[in-house]
Amino acid sequence: MSVNIGIIGTGMIGEEHARRITQQLTGGQIVAVTDVNLDQARAVVDRLGIEAQVYEDGQALISADNVDAVMVTSWGPTHEEYVLAAINAGKPVFCEKPLATTAEGCRHIIDAEIQAGKRLVQVGFMRRYDSGYQMMKAAIDGNRLGEPLIVHAAHRNPEVPERYVTPMAIHDTLIHELDTFRWLLNDDYKSAQVLFPRKTRHAHSKVEDPQIVLLETVKGVRIDVEVFVNCKYGYDIQCDVVGEEGIARLPEPQSLQLRQAGQRSNEILMDWKKRFGEAFDVELQAFIDGVATGELKGPSSWDGYAAAIAGDVCVKAQESGAIEQIDMPERPAFYA
Ligand code: NAI
Ligand code: ISE
Q1: Which of 54, 71, 144, 213 is most deeply packed, by most CB within 10 A?
Q2: How many A from CA of 208 to the centre of ligand 1?
């Protein structure tokens, strides 16, 4: 039996996810869509050639009888409301990052999910499904590096739009690393500091760019992340984990090596869609399969909450320039 999915937010990633489910993945179909821009929702239905009903708003879509599961791919500030509504309707929900724009918003979702008595939320931290990160995790969990000691990482985007402001380097961009390192290292954060090097001339006035985020984990691992969202040359994600016995480096995406005109070169990807294309496939297939079997796995509301707590402290550290402490509440048994 196919899982009937409703999508709220048919912008860039909403359309990508709808296309994947329709054309590549198995076991799911898009039966309902909505967007505050209804014309856009209709256009996506036309482009994909699907027979999905266009709903006036997200609440109507969530309560539709033929919608088994919900995908929230609208703007971050709208996530909390829709995820809560899906939980209250007893429907599984995939929510793009961030789960909510504040830790408090994530906490509301956790409370509702615990009250529902069943895991209903999968958060869109797709890096956990990337084959390169999975190889790193297997090396760490298999003790091939010994104890992890240091992580060096970089998150570079070619450019960002005018609406992108300094805190978004944390909530919108670093949030991926904040989840990834907890998962990779089986650890949590203890403190954060943010440093601002000289600003690139390519950044517009409302964003400090680049930034260096320094994190310390509970086990004492030190992490440095360069967030550089106007690097111009490409979409570039780097990660080295330094352990007692060796170093694991995130593989580069596969690309043709060209020897031509006296040069040896490799293409660098320009956006996240291609860089994490396969990870998105695996992530969404896992959601569909989880709904079908009644057992959602992968990044949970707790993971969304933990990343948001660390994110809120990083934003505080951006403002204070100081080393700020990160206090993680105890994980409820529900999320063990
Ligand atoms: P977008 O702006 O292209 O699309 C968002 C859509 O949501 C727009 O069409 C907008 O009209 C619609 N929308 C806004 N408020 C709504 C509401 N209340 N109800 C229904 N629709 C509403 O943005 P994009 O890039 O697709 O991002 C959407 C979400 O996906 C964000 O949370 C973003 O952080 C996340 N994202 C995740 C990525 C990843 O790598 N996992 C990559 C890009 C985005
Ligand atoms: C975007 O929303 C994403 O999630 C991308 O993965 C990230 O690289 C980018 O910085 C964000 O703006």
Answers
A1: 71
A2: 23
